[in-house]
Every structure is written in C-alpha cells, then in structure tokens.
C-alpha cells in the first residue's frame, strides 16, 4: 500500500539536516572550476539517491524538492533556449526558478510547468519525492523513456499533462493510485499495450486524453466507473472490440472521441437519453454499423457529430434538424440511403456539412442554401439529381463546395459569383449543360476547380491567367462542347501544378 505524507519543513531530522548540508555543498561547488564542478555535482546527485532514497515513507521538504529538480535537470540532454541553464541554480531559491510555483504555507513545490520548452530528457526515479506537487505540465517537449514507478507517490497530483512527447512503454497501471487526479493528458506519445482497467480507480478524473498513441486491445468496461468524466479521448490508436455501454452511462460526459480505431458494434438507441449534455461525438474511421440512433435529436447541446467512414446504413432521420447547436456534421463514406431531409436547413449554426460517398438520392433541399454560416459542403459521390437552385448564391461564406460525381443537370447558376470566399469547387462528373459560366472565373481566391465530364459549351476565357491568379489545380477534361484554343495567358498562372485539358 502506498502512503503519502509530509512533515513541516521546520522539524528537521537527521536526513533533513543532510539535505541542508547538501545545499551548502552545492553553493561551494558553484565557485570551483567548471570541470570539477560538473564532476562533484554529478557525485552529489548520486549521493542524494542514497541519503534520501525514493520512498513513500521518506520525509521530504523544500530542500528535497530542490535536489529532485536538480536531478531532473541532470537528465535533460537538450535545452535549446537555456530555460533551465539560466534559472535552475542551487544559488537561487527553488521557488524562484522558471516553471516552479510553491505553496508558501508549507514551503513546497506545488506546480511544475515546463511546457513548450523543447526539452529533451527522461524523468528520474526520485521525481516521486515531489509529494506536494498538485500540477505537472511537461507538454510539447521531447521527453522520452518510461514513466518511473515512483511517480505513484505524487498522491496530491490533480493535473498531469505529458502530451506531445515521446514517452513509451505501457500506460502505467499506477495512475489508479493518484486518487486526486482530475486531468490526465497523454496524447501524442508512443505508449503501447492495452488501456489498464485500474485507471478507473482514479475516480475524480474529469479529463482523460490518451489519443494518438500505439494502444491496442479493448476499451475496458471499468472506464464507465469514472462518473465525473466530461472528456474521454482515445482517438488515433489501434483499439478493437465494441464501445462499452458503461461509457454511455456517464451522464456528465460532454466529449467522446474514438475516431481512427477499429472499434465495432452499434450505438445504443437511447444514446442521448443517457448523455443529455453531450457536445461532441467523434466516431469516424471505425467499423461501427447499424442505423443512426433517432435519440440523437435529444442531444440538444451537440455541436460536433462525426460518423464518417463506418458502416452505418438506413436513412438520415428528419429529427436531425432539431440539433440547433450543431456546427459540424460528418456522415460521409457510409451506406446511408434515402434523401437529405429538408429539416437540415434548421441547423442554422452549421459550418461544415459532409454527406459524401453514400447512396443518397433526390435533390438538394433548398433549405441548405439558407444556412449562411456554411463554409464547407461535400455531397460528392451520391445519386443526387436535379438542378442547382439560384439560392446557392446565399452561401457567401463557403470556402469548399464539392458536388462532383452525382447526376446534376441544367446550367450552373450565375449566382455562383456571390461565393467570393470560394477556394475549392468540384462540379465534375455530372450532366451540367449550357455555357461555361464566366462568373466562376471571377472568384480570385480560387485554388482548385474541377469541371470535367459535363456537357458545358463555350470557350475558356482568354484572360484566365489574370482572373485566377491563385489557381493551383484546374480540371477541364472531356468538355467536348468547348470551342476555341487554350489561352496563352494560362502561362501566367504561376501557382498552377495540375492542368487537365484532354478531350476538349
């Protein structure tokens, strides 16, 4: 059993006197020659391991904290901006060091923030002596190696961020001993193995982020015991099995993110009855199947719904129009059938809409073109038909519009000239007819345009090189009704990398 306790810094036993003597020796070492100083400092740190061994029963004080941080410094092999070189000196009180905050009542280090310093190194075993530590942030560095078992002695720790490093080994099971832990962030590391069920013992956890690692196996049922969770992120791993239904019983949860794994199974039909304050649901790139739960309409606070690249089927329910706070809706690369419900037009806060590569039929509901906040729309790869309404000009904030690989007919509306923010336009592989609209070529910010395989007539504008100065990709092949020659001004498109003009 781990026992974490501390004593007042004013009550000195023999070990604490030894620590004080050690600090005195460090001050003497500072005045010696550099080579000798380096040798003696290393020797002193080795001696520290024997005088004050890493043990939960060791009495510690601010001198211990200072020596522990000096031990950490000795494990730093690269400090390109000299954050620690210039600040972490035995001649300076430890509470004044860069990144260090102390609890002045107990004269102990309570917070260590070394984030975004591009430090390279490992965590020493005696790090567990920082028994008053409440917050530890080592995010965005190059720390590597395994986390030492002795860190389990940090029993007062509430915040731990090790994100964006190179830590390896299995996710430590001793995280479960950190009973006060509320935030645990391990994303973007190289942790391997499975998720330890013992994590559920850290019952105060509110944020658990272990995305972008190399984790395998099933998601433990025990995670459902973390009834205080509001964020659970396990994206970009190699997890398998089904999502434990216990997770859908965490009524406090606001964010669930399991995208880019291999989890399978169905979603519970009463999903949003169980998760009333859910704001983000990220499940793309998995092996989930079944119908979209009708109860999703009860997630009144939902802002992001990402179900792309799965095996969902059935219709897109009209009830989806009740998600008035929705900003991102990704349903692409599934097996959805039927029509796009008119009620999608009620999603007045929608910024990104993707229902591409499904089996959707019918026409585009005009109501979609009244969502003025839309910046990204992809409906490509379906069986949509009919003409594009003039209301397309209402999408004045649109930056990306993909309608290719459908069955659209009729002319391309001239109102497309109102899309002044448009950067990518894909209308290819349809049956559009009529004249090639010159209005398309007057959107100066256009970077990519695809019009191939349609029945468009007319000519390529002679001044194309000046009206599309930012064009990088231009696809106009198999427009057999076009006449004239390729304008010389196209040579002025200095950013052009792809040009397709075959069969015109």
Layout of helices and strands, plus pairs?
Layout: H1 14-29, H2 34-51, H3 62-74, E1 76-78, H4 83-87, E2 100-103, E3 108-113, E4 120-121, E5 135-137, E6 142-145, E7 159-161, E8 166-170, E9 183-185, E10 190-193, E11 207-209, E12 214-218, E13 231-233, E14 238-240, E15 255-257, E16 264-265, H5 271-274, E17 280-282, E18 287-291, E19 304-306, E20 311-315, E21 328-330, E22 335-339, E23 352-354, E24 359-361, E25 376-378, E26 385-386, E27 400-402, E28 407-410, E29 424-426, E30 431-435, E31 448-450, E32 455-458, H6 464-467, E33 473-475, E34 481-482, E35 498-500
Parallel strand pairs: 3-5, 4-6, 5-7, 6-8, 7-9, 8-10, 9-11, 10-12, 11-13, 12-14, 13-15, 15-17, 16-18, 17-19, 18-20, 19-21, 20-22, 21-23, 22-24, 23-25, 25-27, 26-28, 27-29, 28-30, 29-31, 30-32, 31-33, 32-34, 33-35
Antiparallel strand pairs: 1-4, 2-3
Helix pairs in contact: 1-2
Essential attributes:
Leucine-rich repeat, LRR (right-handed beta-alpha superhelix), about 10% helix, elongated, alpha/beta, 18-stranded mixed beta sheet, about 500 residues, 6 helices, 7-stranded mixed beta sheet
Task: Give an overview in words.
This protein is of the alpha/beta class and 504 residues long. The chain has a domain at 391-504: Leucine-rich repeat, LRR (right-handed beta-alpha superhelix). The protein has an 18-stranded mixed beta sheet, with no helix packed on it. Helix 1 (14-29) runs antiparallel to helix 2 (34-51). Residues 5-20 and 44-57 have low confidence and may be disordered.
Biggest sheet architecture: 18 strands, mixed
Mean pLDDT: 90
Helix tally? Answer: 6
CATH architecture of the domain at 391-504: Alpha-Beta Horseshoe
Percent of residues in beta strands?
Answer: 15-25%
The portion of residues assigned to helices is 10-25%
The coarse silhouette is: elongated
Give the full name of the CATH homologous superfamily of the domain at 391-504. Answer: Ribonuclease Inhibitor
Instruction: Please tell me how large the radius of gyration is.
Output: 30 Å
Low-confidence runs of at least 5 consecutive residues = 5-20, 44-57
Distance between the termini: 79 Å
CATH class category label of the domain at 391-504: Alpha Beta
Question: What is the third-level CATH name, the topology of the domain at 391-504?
Answer: Leucine-rich repeat, LRR (right-handed beta-alpha superhelix)
Provide the structure class. Answer: alpha/beta
Counted beta strands? 35
């Amino acid at each position: 059993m781990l026992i974490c306790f501390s004593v007042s810094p004013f009550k000195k036993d023999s070990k604490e006197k030894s620590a004080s003597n050690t600090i005195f020796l460090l001050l003497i070492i500072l005045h010696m020659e550099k080579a000798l100083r380096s040798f003696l400092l290393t020797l002193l740190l080795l001696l520290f391991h024997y005088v004050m061994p890493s043990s939960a029963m060791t009495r510690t004080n601010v001198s211990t904290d200072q020596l522990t941080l000096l031990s950490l410094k000795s494990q730093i092999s690269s400090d390109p901006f000299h954050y620690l070189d210039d600040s972490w000196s035995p001649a300076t009180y430890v509470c004044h060091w860069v990144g260090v905050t102390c609890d002045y009542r107990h004269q102990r280090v309570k917070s260590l923030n070394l984030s975004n310093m591009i430090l390279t190194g490992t965590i020493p075993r005696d790090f567990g002596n920082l028994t008053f530590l409440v917050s530890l942030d080592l995010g965005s560095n190059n720390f590597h190696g395994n986390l030492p078992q002795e860190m389990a002695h940090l029993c007062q720790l509430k915040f731990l961020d090790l994100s964006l490093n190179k830590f390896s080994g299995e996710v430590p099971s001793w995280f479960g001993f950190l009973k006060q832990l509320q935030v645990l962030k391990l994303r973007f590391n190289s942790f391997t193995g499975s998720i330890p069920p013992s994590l559920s013992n850290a019952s105060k956890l509110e944020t658990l982020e272990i995305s972008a690692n190399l984790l395998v196996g099933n998601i433990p049922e025990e995670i459902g015991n973390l009834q205080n969770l509001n964020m659970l992120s396990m994206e970009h791993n190699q997890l398998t099995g089904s999502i434990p239904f216990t997770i859908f019983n965490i009524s406090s949860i606001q964010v669930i993110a399991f995208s880019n794994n291999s989890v399978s199974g169905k979603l519970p039909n009463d999903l949003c009855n169980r998760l009333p304050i859910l704001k983000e649901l990220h499940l793309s790139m998995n092996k989930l199947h079944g119908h979209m739960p009708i109860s999703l309409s009860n997630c009144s606070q939902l802002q992001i719904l990402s179900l792309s690249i799965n095996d969902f089927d059935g219709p897109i329910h009209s009830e989806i129009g009740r998600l008035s706070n929705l900003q991102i809706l990704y349903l692409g690369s599934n097996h959805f059938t039927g029509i796009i419900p008119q009620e999608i037009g009620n999603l007045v806060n929608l910024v990104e809409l993707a229902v591409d590569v499904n089996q959707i039929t019918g026409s585009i509901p005009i109501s979609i073109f009244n969502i003025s906040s839309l910046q990204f729309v992809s409906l490509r790869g379906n069986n949509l038909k009919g003409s594009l309404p003039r209301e397309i000009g209402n999408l004045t904030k649109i930056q990306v519009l993909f309608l290719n690989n459908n069955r659209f007919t009729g002319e391309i509306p001239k109102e497309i000239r109102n899309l002044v923010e448009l950067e990518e336009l894909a209308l290819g592989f349809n049956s559009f007819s009529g004249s090639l609209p010159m209005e398309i070529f007057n959107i100066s910010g256009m970077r990519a345009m695809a019009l191939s395989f349609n029945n468009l007539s007319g000519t390529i504008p002679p001044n194309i090189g000046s009206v599309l100065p930012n064009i990088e990709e231009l696809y106009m092949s198999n427009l057999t009704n076009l006449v004239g020659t390729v304008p010389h001004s196209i040579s002025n498109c200095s950013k052009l990398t792809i040009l397709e003009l075959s069969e015109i």
